[in-house]
Specification:
The complex is a heterodimer of chains A (about 300) and B (about 280). By secondary structure, chain A is an all-alpha fold. Chain A contains 13 helices and two strands. Chain B has two domains: about 45 residues; about 220 residues, MetI-like fold (Orthogonal Bundle). Chain B is about 75% helix and about 0% strand. Classes of the chains: A mainly alpha (about 300), B mainly alpha (about 280).
């Protein structure tokens, strides 16, 4: 029980601290209220059809929602491909000042404004990917539906996914590295004690950290779902829905970034965009709560 | 058998290190190209880059990004103090009363808020500020920036305050200091480097944020204004609009602005590194 003085101290802190709560409630309420119009008018068709025709007042958000998910899946595959080796290198192979430099570079990458990634990706990475990844894949493997269409400009789902993946790599790396380094050294000693090579002990330690790694990837997925600037500058912005990764498409946030400014001209357009965002916000919040609680639970189990 | 295992071990080491180099190389390429392309533009325009208006698509010289610089500074100036105060109060509450239900709720909420896409924040502020005021404004932009950076500021501050050993609090209570003066005279001074780091990291986040400004700040580039109620521009917003434009001259200006933004971010980053390194010593 708090004493009277403690209570006073608590009360003096409370009003400003509740700003976070107020912001969350207002945010969800605003997005929810603004999307009611379109959801009640179009019904579930809003999420299962694929059209963007303000003149005819027909909307369906299937392509951007699918685009968001596919882009984020590619992003998280890219990020895991980079961040797990990066974690191992930093934690196992580097020492002293090289370790400092490499982990500083990762930290530097992590805080870099996303608009700078967007500039770089749209001016260099997209062309690089078209030339060295998309064109070869298309010419040799075009029988696979994913690679079936010809990459025209390079601005595509694949380009956006990889660009976002590069930008979230440092975030995912930091999470995995923190988990990996917090594994007590007794496990490693046990591995070496039975004569395991470094590779074998890393394999065992990684399997021990697996829940935390999966949680880190879930958090990275949630972050890439909401990524806007990189998506809008690399995805090509077109209301496309097909299996091919080389065709331009939309993510929900890219659609909003490019259509919201003119949406007030049409009766339902704004509300439709809010409805798209509602889905994204709900998914992001749920995933990030799942991810962070999983990591906390894992830590309390492994670190005794 | 023994050699086989050694071979796999070696092979694994090389693959892991090779992939790590590939993972690091994009950012090195990025920094070099942005700085090269951007500083060329800035050097060519000289001081004009900081004091002139942006070019029209068909003008001959680059002009400058004065409205964006002033707008960015103005919005940072408004939102940074608000963010710091709100974040610090919440952090003090949750570190001083870690077991309280309200603290746990605030902690969870900070995590959820950080996961809301920043463009959603822009739409929310558009509805509750821009529409009622009937105009885009630097104020709306600042509010959006505050909402975006508050959960991060809270996390930075609470990590710092939590790292102060409990013995300091015990010492303060034993000489009958009140809880407020313990916080103000002991905790914050002890954690001052951490606090400075947290403030710098919040600043970096505010300076680089783009999506939150899309539908809030407006894009006023025809002059310089410091009124918070007037539409304003920001450096990331200008880059965003110019980089995909079909006009070569606008793309050049975008490179210049990116280099400026990258340089300011790197200065903040190295200041943080300097501060944190000192703490470890």
């Amino acid at each position: 029980m708090l004493s009277r003085k403690d209570k006073l101290f608590f009360m003096s802190l409370l009003p400003l601290s509740l700003s976070l709560l107020a912001i969350l409630i207002i945010s969800i309420a605003v997005i929810g209220i603004r999307s009611i119009d379109s959801i009640s008018f179009f019904g579930p068709k809003l999420y299962t059809m694929n059209v963007w025709d303000p003149e005819a007042e027909v909307y369906g958000l299937l392509a951007p929602i699918a685009g968001s998910i596919v882009t984020s899946v590619i992003a998280i595959l890219t990020a895991s491909f980079f961040s797990i080796p990066l974690t191992i290198t930093i934690a196992e192979y580097l020492k002293g000042s090289t370790k400092n430099i490499v982990s500083s570079i990762v930290e530097l990458m992590g805080g870099l404004p996303t608009i700078i990634y967007a500039v770089w990706a749209s001016q260099y990475l997209v062309l690089f990917l078209k030339q060295y990844v998309m064109d070869p894949l298309h010419s040799y493997l075009s029988f696979i539906p994913l690679f079936s269409c010809k990459p025209v400009t390079g601005f595509s789902v694949l380009a956006a996914g990889i660009s976002i993946g590069i930008s979230i790599t440092p975030y995912v790396t930091a999470l995995i590295l923190e988990a990996y380094q917090s594994i007590p050294s007794t496990y490693r000693e046990a591995c070496y004690g039975i004569g395991a090579t470094r590779y074998e002990s890393i394999k065992i330690l990684l399997s021990l950290a697996r829940p935390a790694i999966i949680a880190a990837l879930v958090l990275g997925f949630a972050r890439s779902l909401g990524e806007t600037t990189i998506a809008v500058t690399t995805i090509g912005n077109s209301m496309n829905l097909n299996l091919c990764l080389f065709s331009p498409s939309y993510t929900v946030s890219a659609l909003i970034a490019s259509q919201f400014a003119n949406a007030y001209l049409y009766p339902y357009a704004e509300s439709v965009l809010y409805a798209g965002m509602l889905i994204l916000v709900i998914i992001s919040i749920l995933l990030s709560l799942y991810g962070s609680t999983t990591i906390i639970r894992w830590r309390s189990r492994v670190i005794v | 058998m023994y050699n086989w295992r050694k071979l796999i071990d070696k092979l694994f080491t090389y693959i892991v290190i090779a992939v790590s180099i590939v993972a690091i190389s994009p950012v090195i390429h990025l920094i070099i190209t942005v700085l090269l392309n951007g500083t060329m533009v800035i050097v060519k325009t000289g001081i004009n880059f900081f004091i002139s208006l942006p070019p029209t698509p068909f003008s001959k010289d680059f002009g400058g990004i004065a409205p964006a610089i002033v707008g960015s500074l103005l919005m940072t100036f408004i939102s940074l103090p608000i963010t710091i105060v709100l974040g610090l109060f919440a952090a003090i509450l949750t570190t001083e009363f870690p077991k309280n239900t309200i603290s746990i709720v605030i902690d969870t909420i900070a995590k959820s808020l950080a996961s809301i896409p920043t463009i959603a924040v822009s739409m929310i502020v558009y509805t509750i500020i821009v529409v009622p005021m009937k105009s885009f404004s630097a104020l709306a932009g600042s509010i959006a920036l505050t909402i975006v950076s508050l959960p991060y500021a809270y996390t930075y501050f609470s990590t710092t305050l939590r790292s102060v050993p409990f013995t300091y609090r015990e010492a303060a209570f034993s000489i009958a200091m009140s809880r407020w003066s313990t916080v103000l005279k002991i905790l914050i001074p002890v954690a001052r480097r951490g606090i400075a780091t947290a403030i710098l990291m919040t600043l970096a986040r505010i300076l680089g944020e783009t999506a939150a400004l899309l539908f809030t700040a407006g894009r006023f580039r025809n002059g310089v204004t410091i009124s918070p109620l007037a539409p304003a521009d920001a450096i990331p917003l200008l880059i965003f609009d110019f980089v995909l434009s079909p006009y070569e001259i606008w793309r050049q200006v975008a490179w210049g602005a990116s280099a400026l933004l990258l340089l300011s971010y790197m200065i903040i980053f190295f200041a943080v590194k300097f501060l944190v390194k000192e703490v470890k010593l």
